[in-house]
Amino acid sequence: MNNFEFQNPTKIIFGKGEIAKIAHEIPSDKNVLIIYGGGSIKKNGVYDQIMAALKEHHVAEFSGIEPNPNDTTCFKAVRQIHDQDIDFLLAIGGGSVIDATKFIAAAAAAGDADPRSLLGTIEVASRALPFGVVLTLPATGSEMNPAAIITNTSTHEKTVFKSQHVFPQFSVLDPTVTFTLPPRQVANGVVDAFTHVMEQYLTYSVNHKLQERFAESILLTLVEEGPKTLANPTDYDARANMMWCCTMALNGLIRYGVPNDWATHMIGHTLTALHGLDHAQTLAIILPTIMEYKRDKKRDRILQYAERIWNITEGSQEERIDAAISKTREFFESLGVKTHLRDYDINEDDIPKLIGQLRDQNLTALGEHKDITLEDSQAILEESL
Amino acid sequence: MNNFEFQNPTKIIFGKGEIAKIAHEIPSDKNVLIIYGGGSIKKNGVYDQIMAALKEHHVAEFSGIEPNPNDTTCFKAVRQIHDQDIDFLLAIGGGSVIDATKFIAAAAAAGDADPRSLLGTIEVASRALPFGVVLTLPATGSEMNPAAIITNTSTHEKTVFKSQHVFPQFSVLDPTVTFTLPPRQVANGVVDAFTHVMEQYLTYSVNHKLQERFAESILLTLVEEGPKTLANPTDYDARANMMWCCTMALNGLIRYGVPNDWATHMIGHTLTALHGLDHAQTLAIILPTIMEYKRDKKRDRILQYAERIWNITEGSQEERIDAAISKTREFFESLGVKTHLRDYDINEDDIPKLIGQLRDQNLTALGEHKDITLEDSQAILEESL
Question: Measured between beta carbons, which residues in chain A are less than 8 angstroms from residue B16?
């Protein structure tokens, strides 16, 4: 096992009816800004629950965070924070709203620094406003980690923002608020969490037995509960299990001490940036292709995955690997998430621009071995058609 | 799944050579008291590593924490803390030293309150001195939780002390410092962690799929790595996996949202208090008997445990349950931990006193259903002979 440091101070408040507890989690003297996306929280009762809980607090609002949030929207929130002396943020939404809130929290506390300079893979934020989360869309795990993806509008790049200062202080996870989500968003959440696990699991062994089994636990539960929660959106336990899987998939538990891949995410981000695909759609396209393309270097892990997740024990190694890749693709497709570029009207002519963006972002050495070059990414995209 | 709150702010620093990092974790202006047990840390190099790391700090020492630490020893440390204006504690040891340090940290900050009044199952400490941990004996999980077991010398009872204020600020887990541990302590650690998981796993289902699989992950890894690490104490990866299992077994991950048992621990504590058995020895005796005694109410869980941990899929339900109990007992015995009271020279005549102590502590309704009465505990002890 590799050496590692692990710390995750976020308080999780999990279960039906728990949103009311935010009243006690946010100090009563705070000037609160609630941050959300479109109007869905006004239709599903979440907005009303929050306003009832915060009736003793001073509350302002900022809405209009878009999917794959961009920095200019965040800067508008920062101006409102400064204008209104806001000192606590509450994100209400899924990964996009939480990610935006993290960046807003750091940018608002950055003083005279150019907030756009905070975007990048290196820890640069030295402080942030405190914030909490009410999660409405289980998927990204952002509710219990210190990372965000923000689109830099000056370069059109999806950029990582990370800081130890942007762990949510608390996150409320009430599975009942997800009952009214559109099936597409639920399916995307399952694919997103599944792929988060795979990026930390399907690499190579450093004798990290426990992290491997934790990863397999999440995959098995997603395979079991994902279809159930789509078939019956108000099955509380199925949705609770799925929600907890999404959080655990990206809160550090299975990440530390082990090799990490993330090539699927990096190539996938370009598909969202240039073609507007849902994040999970990009993962469903690229992950099976990378499994195929890297079948030799990932051989041992794919064979273990085949056996432990899909119970594939018969046949030659090549046959078992083929079967595991097919099972993965079929799982995504069974949820209604298509797994080929052509399903989204992206064809061979679009690949040069996608490669150009990877080049512009210096994403020229991807994967757990840093051996996926631009040529490899091009081949992966071609094989994803 | 039941509603729950989960928060664990302890920073884990894991891996070989990491003890030196304590220099940066403890502010340089702190007046540090290092707390340890006997002299083993002076023989295995840990003491020297710590003193080298803290050469710029002001450091005092308190040694002599006994196994199953008692409150009067802790009160001596509290006096030293007050006399020497100590404001940071560093526990160096296993569960006993860490547990003692937690109680010391709270008692030293308790002001005029009678520190013995802090002992009890209810959160009463309102503050505590900050402290860190250098773990030398993987077993209890105390390095990443806010609980301690302290013997109240006025009543001879092992008493739970819990407070959100006594999470360690950091815990250093360097598997290499465990290479020189006596085999008995390592075996005890495996049994202790295994039983911690079983107390949170072998209850009844509330559709907590992920927590179940996480629990099974720890059990499987202990079954796989436990014998390995005893056979070859310097196998770094085996010991690293075992160490991480012990921490994860009792840090909240598999506890929240699920029913908890803890009857084995409660009955076991009396065996330690009155007969001086190692904590893990008491668990190895009582757990298999409770599985047998509660085979009906725990039926579904034992059958799942039989299949997922021991691959027992053949035979009637009763046969599979019998086989699972046998496998559990054999596993403990294979590690060198005996599983019957007679192995420790405890016989039928000793049982009334043990029951008397359970009565004195009001431990008259144990287990996940609170249905293990004193009569049941007596039967369990008789069946453990």
Answer: 3
pLDDT tens, position by position, A238-247 = 999 999 999 9
Distance CA A51, CA A95 (A): 21
Beta-bridged to residue A132, according to DSSP, are A90, A170
> How far, in Å, are A96, B89, B113, B132, B371 from residue B167 at the CA level?
32, 12, 21, 9, 31
Q: CB A237 to CB B12 under 8 A? A: no
CA torsion A11→A15→A21→A22, rounded to 10°? Answer: 60
Report the pLDDT averaged over residues B359-372: 96
Is the Cβ of B217 closer than 8 Å to some Cβ of chain A?
yes
From the number of C-beta atoms within 10 Å of its C-beta (0-12, 13-18, 19+), residue A366 rates as buried
Q: Which of A5, A18, A225 sits opposite B3 (nearest CB)?
A: A18
Contact A90, A133 (CB under 8 A): yes
Rounded Cα distance between B321 and B310, Å, is 11
Interface membership of A204 toward B (CB under 8 Å): no
Name the closest residue on chain B to residue A247, using Cα atoms.
B210
Which residue is associated with the tokens 């640069």? Answer: A124
Residues B26 and B33 sit within 8 Å (Cβ to Cβ): no
What's the pLDDT at A183?
97
| B3 has a chain A CB within 8 A of its CB | yes
Q: pLDDT tens-digit profile of A252-294?
A: 999 999 999 999 999 999 999 899 999 999 999 999 999 999 9
Residue type, B75: F
- Under 8 Å between Cβ of A174 and A17: yes
pLDDT tens digits along A339-359: 999 999 999 999 999 999 999
Task: Decide if the complex's ipTM is over 0.90.
Answer: yes
How many whole angstroms separate alpha carbon B300 and alpha carbon B302?
Answer: 6
Distance from the Cα of A116 to chain B's closest Cα (Å) equals 30
Q: What average pLDDT does range A97-116 have in this prediction?
A: 89
pLDDT the model gives residue B8: 97
Partners of B32 in beta bridges: B59, B88
The whole-angstrom separation of Cα B270 and Cα B267 is: 6
pLDDT bracket for residue B110 (50, 70, 90): confident
Is the CB of B13 less than 8 angstroms away from the CB of A5?
yes
In this structure, are residues B271 and B354 in contact, taking their beta carbons and an 8 Å threshold? Answer: yes
3-class secondary-structure state, position A8:
strand
Give the closest-approach CA distance of A177 to chain B in angstroms: 14
Helices A317-334 and A279-293 pack at an angle, to 10 degrees, of 170
Indicate the pLDDT class of residue A122, thresholds 50, 70 and 90: low
Distance of residue B250 Cα from the nearest chain A Cα, in angstroms = 14
Mean pLDDT throughout A215-222?
A: 98
Q: A8 — contact with chain B (CB < 8 Å)?
A: yes
Residue of B6, B11, B170 to mutate when probing chain A, most A C-beta within 10 A: B6
C-alpha–C-alpha distance, residues B248 and B139, integer Å? 10
This prediction's pTM: 0.96
pLDDT category of residue B116 using cuts at 50, 70 and 90:
confident
> What pLDDT, on the 0 to 100 scale, is given for residue B343?
98
DSSP-derived secondary structure for A34-100: EE--SSHHHHSSHHHHHHHHTTTSEEEEE--PPSS-BHHHHHHHHHHHHHHT--EEEEEESHHHHHH
The DSSP 8-state label assigned to residue B66 in this structure reads P
Query: Residue B49: what are its φ and ψ, rounded to 5°?
Result: -60, -40
Q: What domains can you pick out in chain B, each with its CATH number?
A: 11-177 (3.40.50.1970), 182-383 (1.20.1090.10)
The strand pair at A147-152 and A157-162 is best described as: antiparallel
Q: What pLDDT was estimated at residue A121?
A: 55
Residue carrying structure tokens 């949103």: A19
Q: Which residues of A touch B9 (CB under 8 A)?
A: 7-9
